[in-house]
Design a protein that fits this description.
The structure holds 2 protein chains of 2 kinds.
Chain A (H helix, E strand, L loop, with lengths): L1 E7 L2 E8 L4 H8 L6 E11 L1 H16 L4 E4 L3 H9 L7 E2 L1
Parallel strand pairs in A: 2-3, 3-4, 4-5
Antiparallel strand pairs in A: 1-2
Chain B lengths: L1 E6 L5 H15 L5 H19 L6 E9 L2 E8 L27 H9 L2 E7 L2 E9 L4
Antiparallel strand pairs in B: 1-2, 2-3, 3-5, 4-5
Classes of the chains: A alpha/beta, B alpha+beta.
Chain lengths: ~90, ~140
């Protein structure tokens, strides 16, 4: 189960598991994001390559229109996945 | 050693995650290790669902604990050969604009695991992943 909650304009919270069974639906939902966004990942329990792929596509889309994607409050195990993928150096993670 | 079969579709992932939790709890392994199993199983299972041509309706997952080594084995029956371990390494130094998700799954498995072995016999495709862990 995975959810996206809007905390305030420009800030959303990801909650649950972003895996292959959710990736397609989540990619569609994230199309609604048209400007710079800050993602609170404090409740993101799990991510796999499918979820990473969704965030990479969002990042590329936002970057191409001059916007930014910032990930904050990652759990250590989720941060490790970004590190393994070499994305901790390429994405803005706080 | 415990083995269970799961339907060949992504809707089975929730049951696979539950299987991992049940197993690590029974073995007294740090619950956090279940997340490593989740990534390994999801990436390999998803590959089998996508590329296991001609396979049966179910895929078997076997878990084995011989402290300090944890093994997870996925077996896809009656399929054409597909060896994900033959995928070229992912260049994680490439700019993000040039990044695609393809190949990242097996890359993550390689990062988490100590060893990955592929075996293909009698039209059965088997991937065994082992990892040393510290029991809590």
């Amino acid at each position: 189960m995975f959810e996206i909650r809007v905390l305030e304009p420009g800030t959303i919270r990801l909650a649950g598991r972003l895996d292959a069974s959710e990736a397609e639906r989540v990619a569609q939902e994230l199309l609604a994001i048209q400007g710079s966004v800050r993602m609170d990942c404090s409740e993101l329990d799990y991510i796999s390559s499918a979820g990473i792929g969704v965030l990479i596509e969002l990042f590329k889309r936002l970057q191409s229109s001059g916007h930014t994607l910032t990930l904050v409050n990652l759990l250590p195990r989720v941060r490790n996945i970004f590190r393994y993928a070499g994305l901790d150096r390429l994405l803005t993670i706080e | 050693m415990v083995a269970r079969t799961f339907p060949r579709n992504l809707g089975a992932l929730e049951a696979i995650y539950a299987f991992h939790r049940e197993f690590v709890a029974a073995c007294g392994i740090d619950p956090e290790v279940a997340y490593d199993l989740d990534v390994i199983a999801e990436e390999l299972f998803t590959n089998m669902v996508k590329y296991g041509r001609g396979g049966r309706r179910e895929i078997e997952i076997e878990l084995e604990w011989a402290a300090p080594t944890l093994a997870i084995r996925l077996r896809d029956f009656d399929v054409e050969r597909f060896d994900p371990t033959a995928a070229p390494p992912v260049d994680t130094s490439r700019p993000i604009a040039e990044r695609r998700a393809g190949g990242l799954g097996i890359h993550l498995v390689r990062q988490i695991a100590d060893r990955i072995d592929y075996d293909y016999q009698g039209r059965d495709s088997t991937i065994t992943v082992t990892k040393k862990v510290v029991s809590s």
